[in-house]
Amino acid sequence: MAYQQPLCKWRFYFGHQRVMVLLLLYLFNIVAAQIRYSIPEEMKKGSLIGNVAQDLGLDLKRLRSGRARIVTGENIHYTELKTDKGILVVNERIDREQLCGDVTPCSFSFEILFENPMELHPVKILIQDQNDNPPQVLYPVQTGGSLVAEMVPRSADVGYLVTKVVAVDVDSGQNAWLSYKLQKATDRALFEVGLQNGEIRTIRQVTDKDAVKQRLTVIVEDNGQPSRSATVIVNVAVADSFPEVLSEFTEFTHDKEYNDNLTFYLVLALAVVSFLFITCLVVIISVKIYRWRQSRILYHSNLPVIPYYPPRYSDTLGTGTLQHVYNYEVCRTTDSRKSDCKFGRAGSQNVLIMDPSSTGTMQRIQSEKSILDEPDSPLEVSSIM
Questions:
Q1: Which of 163, 165, 162, 195 is nearest to 177 (CA)?
Q2: What is the sign of the dihedral through the CA atoms of 347, 349, 354 and 359?
Q3: Is 142 helix (H, G, I), strand (E, B) or coil?
Q4: What are the pLDDT digits (tens) for 138-197?
Q5: Which of 200, 233, 236 is nearest to 218 (CA)?
Q6: Which residue has the higher pLDDT, 118 or 203?
Q7: Relative to the CA of 193, which of 31, 117, 172, 183 has its CA 20 to 30 Å away?
Q8: pTM summary value
Q9: What φ, ψ does residue 326 adopt, rounded to 5°?
Q10: In the chain, which residue ranges form alpha helices assigned H by DSSP?
Q11: What are the residues whose beta carbons fall under 8 Å from the beta carbon of 84, sequence distance 6 or more?
């Protein structure tokens, strides 16, 4: 509020000065014909508005020597004069709704001043509306959390007015013409929407079989090219009493959210189970294939098979690299019996069967064994064959 009074004074001052300048120029007869340009709104900066030099019948030297410039006018910052090219361009994006509001037609004016000799050329810019704004729904109010419903009694007759969708478009002309269409409905045979006025009415008699909760989706479209639209959801309660409506619609939002969450979790669980099943199946098949290939490699290989003989194993056939395996026992002196060490003789009872070629060696071993077994033998021999 503190800046309104000085601003009004400055506007009055500049407006007064502009009038005075124009009067003086008219008196001296230096005001030329007015130039008009029509441009669409929302043009980019640097876009061409018009060729001033060509439209005024002047060459570029006149613009440069006359030091042509834009003077007077409140909205001269929207345009810029390129004297080197003789053209008028957009200096700032022009929003018709911001510039003129609901006023139509929308335009602004300024003057181009030439010096030596002095000339003044008025320029008027008409702003064409573009369909850059979608419709805005005023009623019913679209609330996020709360649920608003229109009540329709079960005794309603054909043509009963349920509610009216109210929307506006800040664009002008045919871009602001709105139409209403019913996109979805719980029962499309029960309601209709007026194409031009947005009135929702019943098209048949309401019966007791009709559901209490009715949900309508209405699309509001403008007449622009390309058209813009807005969606509004209308909740209708078919009931005769408010408590019945309250009991039904309090669970409406919760049921929808619960169903949405349940569907999401079911899909997620199905995806996880399917992934785990496929993973296990691939692992099992891979292990089976690996074992099968290992068995095939061993079956077809030419490597010799080396048998494994456990300890104290006796080769009765004598077919190995060593013909026989013999046990041995420790022989000791008489005094060794007094020692603390104990030696077992269980292994001496095991006798291996030998082939005839080793009979002499076996006899010699047995004779030595009989000598060593005598108590007074001074020798201790360990024989390993």
A1: 195
A2: positive
A3: coil
A4: 999 877 655 678 889 988 889 999 999 999 999 988 899 999 999 999 999 999 999 999
A5: 233
A6: 203
A7: 172
A8: 0.53
A9: -120, 150
A10: 4-27, 52-56, 60-65, 96-100, 242-249, 252-300, 359-372
A11: 60, 64
